[in-house]
Specification:
It is a single chain. The protein is mainly α and 258 residues long. The chain is 83% helix and 0% strand. The chain has eleven helices and no strands. The radius of gyration is 20 Å and the shape is globular. 41% of the residues are buried.
């Protein structure tokens, strides 16, 4: 790649290789190897930023921090996840503020904010987690409103709404949670009608509907809850029929049937 001129800097070349190997190891379930490669990429990118703090170098550093933060969260090392994500959020915020017209910078900042919110919530810092998630949702709502033709923006907003709804549901804020789930379902229902074979939309709609069903039952509306659960079962059956080789889809279907 360097010889072809696609990557003009040896730091970029070496760090990108480790990032790709880390992604492959994580996909294969080898979290330790993934951590080793992403840590090496992080080390290289820190050196890169120290020598030449270009936009590309700093974005690469933020990517490595986010990958290590997400990996630490999955492995249950929430303290490490918090440290990585706090640095990632601060760096993403700085990049966004310096490049206000760069849509990707704004979206990456909001994505990092969402992960940090989930980590803080998992650590038991419930109020801070909800505040952080609420800020991410507000930011995504603003972006989606400014880009009404962007389907990805609307879908991301629906996912953010569901994540906030889950937090509110766990803390007993049922009416607020219902509102978040309702907004997510409204958007995702439309998307699924347009593209009924989209497995990602299937999964996100299932999550939003399940959350809404739990919220409705918790508020005493059991008659409204049952049809929602049936929709979850139907969607999971459809998703399994679309991809019968996917074990995760089968397990989600069995869990819904149970």
């Amino acid at each position: 790649l360097e010889n072809e001129g696609e990557i003009p800097h040896p730091f970029a070349n070496r760090s990108k290789i480790h990032q790709l190997l880390g992604d492959a190891s994580r996909a294969a379930g080898d979290y330790q190897d993934a951590d080793d490669h992403h840590s090496e990429a992080l080390s290289i990118r820190r050196q890169w930023v120290a020598q030449s703090p270009t936009l590309g170098a700093r974005i690469g550093l933020a990517v490595s921090l986010g990958k290590l933060g997400s990996l630490a969260q999955v492995r249950g090392d929430l303290n490490a996840a918090k440290n990585y994500m706090e640095e990632a959020v601060a760096l993403r915020r700085q990049i966004m503020q310096e490049n206000p017209t760069m849509a990707a910078a704004r979206l990456e900042y909001l994505g990092a904010q969402l992960v940090l919110a989930k980590v803080r919530f998992q650590q038991g810092d419930v109020d801070d987690g909800i505040a952080q998630m609420s800020g991410a949702v507000d930011g995504m709502r603003e972006y989606a409103a400014q880009n009404p033709q962007s389907k990805s923006a609307q879908q991301n907003l629906a996912m953010f709404e569901t994540e906030l709804g889950v937090m509110l549901l766990y803390t007993g804020k049922i009416p607020q949670a219902e509102s978040n789930f309702d907004r997510a379902v409204l958007v995702l229902d439309d998307f699924l009608q347009e593209d009924p074979d989209n497995l990602k939309v299937h999964a996100e709609l299932e999550d939003a509907l399940y959350g809404l069903s739990v919220a409705r039952e918790a508020s005493g509306n059991t008659q409204d809850s049952a049809p929602l659960i049936q929709r979850v079962v139907d969607l999971r059956r459809q998703a399994f029929d679309l991809d019968k080789s996917n074990l995760a889809k089968k397990l989600r279907l069995l869990a819904a049937l149970a």
